[in-house]
Amino acid sequence: MAESEAASGAAPGTGEPSSAQGAGTVGILFVGDVVGGLGRRTLLDSLPVLRERHAPTFVVVNGENAAGGLGITPKIADQMFAAGVDAITLGNHTYHRREIWPYLDSEPRIVRPANFLRSQPGRGACVVESADGQRLGVVNLSGNLYLRAGRSAFTEIEVALGELGAVDHILVDVHAEATSEKVGLGWHLDGRVTAVVGTHTHVPTADARVLPGGTAYISDVGMTGPRGGVIGVKRELAIEAMRTKMPVRFEVSTEDPWLQGVLITTAEQPLRATAIETVHEPAAEVS
Ligand SMILES: [Fe+2]
Ligand SMILES: [Fe+2]
Questions:
Q1: How far is the centre of ligand 2, averaged over its atoms, from the C-alpha of 20 (Å)?
Q2: Using the 8-state DSSP alphabet, how is residue 274 labeled?
Q3: Ligand 1 mean position to 127 CA, how many Å?
Q4: How far is the CA of 147 from the centre of ligand 2 (A)?
């Protein structure tokens, strides 16, 4: 059964689910880390259903695990764009597949963390435009705790925001391990961007809300792929590695695929949200 819960902001009663969007508001469907072929099929099967149900203006997907669990290829990214995905964000597995390196420089709708080194391929922010002319800025950040980003997320977000130019709304994907870092970035950006959404842990958190300044926030949206594994990996292999402390070749689990993400409803005022609701959808119900 589908799970969905709405969380509204500081003014109780002002947040409404997407079905109650007023004129001038925009819905943004953000989908958590797509894991492997099963995650891709879950995404592609679910999108038409979710479009009909929520009519999002923009769809943004984290694709850092889309190719066999690690990285993404140009073919997979093209497939997502063809399915109507407006922008793709990435994370610590950005460069796992070499063939994506030149694509990151040539395709403006895919972003890797903005606080990677400037010498690394790709860009950290992009702007996508809807058919009716709404402009959404998308920024990808990496946490600095337990991840190998070359520069500080807190300083580089200022540079990225400054480079976006005129936009109606901004979505920031904070790809990070530590919830403390994500919560800190949420507060740091409250009132300055439309949404700060966390990715990377593959486990959804229960803290979706609109912060007092009007920024929709969640520490982690979860993943799109097999819930029957250990954050996407076949559970017997993950358990073997943890139990024995020996190297184990990981494979993507094939059990119990779900789509996990959030739906953000924007305010008519630029760079503000009125609601964020979690979207947890078992693949079996939508395929
Ligand atoms: Fe991931
Ligand atoms: Fe990650």
A1: 33
A2: E
A3: 23
A4: 9
Q: Which two tokens stand for residue 68?
A: 């066999």
Return the ∠ at Cα 266 (arms to 218 and 30), rounded to 5°.
Answer: 45
DSSP conformation class of 62: E
Q: What is the pTM of this model?
A: 0.91
**Residue 159 Cα to ligand 2 middle (Å):** 23
Report every protein residue that has its C-beta within 5 angstroms of ion ligand 1: 33, 64-65
CB 26 within 8 A of CB 168: yes
The bound ligand whose nearest atom lies closest to the alpha carbon of 175 is 2
Give the position of tokens 């922010």: 125
Between CA 257 and CA 229 the distance in angstroms is 10
Q: How far apart are the first and last CA of the chain?
A: 14
The model's pLDDT over 165-205, given as tens digits with 9 standing for 90+, comes to 999 999 999 999 999 999 999 999 999 999 999 999 999 99
Q: What is the pLDDT of residue 2?
A: 42
In whole angstroms, what is the distance from residue 199 CA to residue 182 CA? Answer: 9
Ligand nearest to the CA of residue 69, numbered in listed order? 1
Active site residue 93: yes
Residues of the chain short of pLDDT 50, as ranges, are 1-23, 286-287
Which of 54, 93, 169, 175 does the annotation list as catalytic?
93
pLDDT score, position 285: 56
